[in-house]
Amino acid sequence: MNYTIIAQQVVNLCLGVGKFIRDESGRIQRTDIEEKGLHDLVSYVDRTAEKMLIDELKKMIPDAGFIAEESGTIESAKYRWIIDPLDGTTNFIHKIPLFSISIALQEDGKTVIGVVYEVNQDECFYAWKSGNAYLNGKQIQVSSTNSLSDSLIATGFPYYDFSRLKPYLSFFEYLLKNTRGIRRLGSAAVDLAYVACGRFEAFYEYGLHPWDVAAGAFIVERAGGQCSGFDGSDEVVFGKDILATNTLVHNEIKEKLIEIFKPEVSADV
Ligand code: IPD
Ligand code: CA
Ligand code: CA
Questions:
Q1: Which helix (H) or strand (E) holds 222?
Q2: Are 22 and 120 in contact (CB under 8 A)?
Q3: Residue 40 pairs with which residues in a beta bridge?
Q4: What is the tens place of the pLDDT at every residue in 126-177?
Q5: Which ligand 1 atom is the nearest neighbour of the CA of 187?
Q6: Of 55, 216, 225, 240, which is the most exposed, with the fewest CB atoms less than 10 Å away?
Q7: Ligand having the closest approach to the CA of 89
């Protein structure tokens, strides 16, 4: 498998499907929206974009499986694509011009290619196994900021799973008081891409799905950054929560996050 060539093909595919999404962003209406779950929106644009992606990805690796947000999972032995055809659907539907396509390829359960295309800025972030990370052909790296007080942080607000809202808000308060500020862009894939290219020092969120993070987390790592779960584990693609940072602030943020999010010990144990 030539990862460089496949990565380039996926980049080109994202540019094409991105054009479809951009064109539809001028036409979409609130009446085109369905609610899949609590506050979880979808439209014909997500579904059509996903079909366009899957049709082409099948040609690249005919026997690969899929984990795709809108059409589900097709298991396969060696390769699988993890796809979010439109990350930032709420932005898209509300005509906030920040949303992306996120595609990862895994080989034997490990990510080997990641592509995140921010449609309206025409910014394509990508990386492949044993290579560097790039933004529109230029190599990118995480920031070299080593202090929390000089850091800009991104997050995603809980919108359907409020089980960890209390620690989420405590951690949020801690970061408000100890960093340059916090941003909520509305696309986890873009948040991760911005960590990879040094615009943010860190991104954290819980209640995520594999298609939100698989590509972006891989790009962060190839750009010299670090990702872990809220319990400090390495499993971020299927782990449902993620902290992604440059390496210099990782431990400081991770320790605070673990301290605040640690499961409460029940009184009768
Ligand atoms: C959402 C976006 C958002 C994040 C949510 C995701 P979607 O994905 O990434 O930033 O906060 O957790 O579900 O639904 O727009 O594909
Ligand atoms: Ca998503
Ligand atoms: Ca989506």
A1: helix 210-222
A2: yes
A3: 37
A4: 999 999 999 999 999 999 999 999 999 999 999 999 999 999 999 999 999 9
A5: 10
A6: 55
A7: 1
CA of 97 to the centre of ligand 1 (A): 14
Ligand 1, CB within 6 Å, residue ranges: 84, 87-90, 156, 186-188, 205, 207-208, 212
Task: Give the largest CA-CA distance in the chain.
Answer: 58
Task: Please name the residue that has the structure tokens 């607000």.
Answer: 157
Tell me the ligand closest to 70's alpha carbon: 3
Ligand that comes closest to the CA of residue 91: 1
Mean pLDDT rounded to a whole number for the chain: 95
pLDDT tens-digit profile of 59-71? 999 999 999 999 9
Which domains, ranges and CATH numbers included, belong to the chain?
A: 3-140 (3.30.540.10), 148-268 (3.40.190.80)
CA of 207 to the centre of ligand 1 (A): 9
The owner of tokens 């909520």 is: 184
Residue 257 region, left (φ>0) first, then alpha (ψ -120 to 50), else beta? alpha
Reduce the DSSP state of residue 249 to 3 states and report it.
helix
Q: Is the pTM of this model over 0.90?
A: yes
Q: What is the pLDDT of residue 265?
A: 57
pLDDT tens digit string along 7-26? 999 999 999 999 999 999 99
Is pLDDT of 92 > 70?
Answer: yes
The CA distance from 251 to 265, in Å, is 24
